[in-house]
Amino acid sequence: MAQKTIVDFVWKGSDNQIRRVLAIDYLALQVKQYFDKVPESYQRHYAVVNGTHARVYPGVIKGLQTAIDKELQLACATNKPLAFTLALLKNIGLSDYFELVYGGAAFPCKKPNPRQLLAVCSGCAMEPSQVVAIGMPPATRPKPKPYEQEVAGYLTYHTDGYNHGESIQDINSDVIVALLLIATYKILYLILY
After folding, report:
1. How far is the C-alpha of 52 from the C-alpha of 47, rounded, in Å?
2. Considering only CA atoms, which of 67, 55, 66, 63 is closest in space to residue 93?
3. Is the dihedral of CA 17, 146, 152, 128 positive or negative?
4. CB neighbours (10 Å) of residue 96?
5. Ordered alpha helix ranges (H), the chain
6. 60-192 has which fold?
7. 193: Cβ–Cβ under 8 A, 6 or more apart, which residues?
8. Would you list the domain boundaries of the chain?
9. Among 28, 35, 101, 114, which is 20 to 30 Å from 68 by CA?
C-alpha cells in the first residue's frame, strides 16, 4: 500500500487504521464482519515495523536535551499501547529522555480527555498549574475544558505532519511553535518569568 494512502490513516488509532485498510477492498458490511478478526494480525505486523519508517523532527532531540539540562521533568502520554510506545521511543532514540511513559491502557479515557494530563501531573508529583503540556495536532488541548484544574499552558508543536486538513490556527492552544526546541525555551521563560 502506498505511503500517501496510509498517511491519512495515521493519528486516529489502530481501530480506524484497520477499518480504513479493510475499506479499500471491502464494502462497509464486510468491513464490520472482518474487523474483529484483524486486530491480532495487525498488532503482530505493527510490532515488526514500529518505528522503522519514523523520523524524529528537527529540533526534537535538542529540545529534549535542553529540557533535561535545565532539570525539567519529562513525561510521555499517548493513546498508543504502552508496549508499542516503549519500543517506538527506543527505536528512534528518545526513550532515555522521559522519566515517565504512559500508554493508552494506563487511562480509562483517551486524549484529548484531560484526565490523562491530570494522571501525568500526579505521576510527576506536580500540581497541574506547574505543568505545561506539549501536543501535536489534532489531539492537543482538551475541548471543552470539563475539569476545573488547568495545566499552566498548552503548547502545540506544529510540524508538516498529520493535521488532516485542519488549519493550525484553529487548534485550541496557548502557543503554536514549529520546533520543540522553541517550545522548551518558551517553557523555560514561563518558569523564569
Report:
1. 10
2. 55
3. negative
4. 11
5. 3-6, 14-25, 28-35, 39-49, 60-69, 82-91, 115-123, 180-192
6. Rossmann fold (3.40.50)
7. none
8. 3-49, 60-192
9. 114
